[in-house]
Amino acid sequence: MTRFLTAALFLCAPSLRGEVEPERMIRALAAVENGQPDDLGGECHMREAAWSDRTKLPYYLSRNPAHARNVYRLHLVWLARQLTRAGVRITPQSVATCWRYGVAGAKRRGFRSEYADRVANIYHENAP
Q1: Residue 17, by phi and psi: left (phi above 0), alpha (psi -120 to 50) or beta?
Q2: DSSP labels for 61-105?
Q3: Helices and strands in the chain: count of H runs, count of E runs
Q4: Of the candidates 55, 70, 72, 100, which lies 20 to 30 Å from 1 by C-alpha distance?
Q5: pLDDT for the residue 11
Q6: How far from 1 is each of 12, 55, 56, 95, 120, CA to CA, in Å?
């Protein structure tokens, strides 16, 4: 299963390249969520419904940082596709708003939120 996830991520990674760097985005989300790697949902507090939409792995594996980060990356790629379909620019703010509220909730908020601003600030502070 891990090999499949790795292959899928390799094929999907270009969807975010140049817009939002996935690892940096995950670190920014984790900083705002203030989760611990062994928390249910992992350090980014991914909800079970979102987890189940991205993988067949059992939700308790969200406590495993390696598994969780792979699923986070898959979710980020999915969010980027949804934003593209909606005609919304892929930015740390738009991605974070979708992460927190779901795509429909983010749309109702105009793809902006205070939560997303906090994530984006951390994302930009940690630029390479």
Answers
A1: beta
A2: GGGSHHHHHHHHHHHHHHHHHHHHHTT----HHHHHHHHHHHHHH
A3: 6, 0
A4: 100
A5: 47
A6: 16, 10, 9, 26, 32
Collapsing DSSP to helix, strand or coil, 88 comes out as coil
Contact between residue 69 and residue 5 where contact means Cβ atoms under 8 Å apart: no
Residue with tokens 């792979």: 70
Q: Are 46 and 72 in contact (CB under 8 A)?
A: yes
Paired tokens of 53: 């939409």
Tokens of 56: 């067949």
| DSSP class of 57 | S
The segments of the chain whose pLDDT lies below 50 read 5-15
User: What pTM was computed for the model?
Assistant: 0.83
Amino acid at 74: L
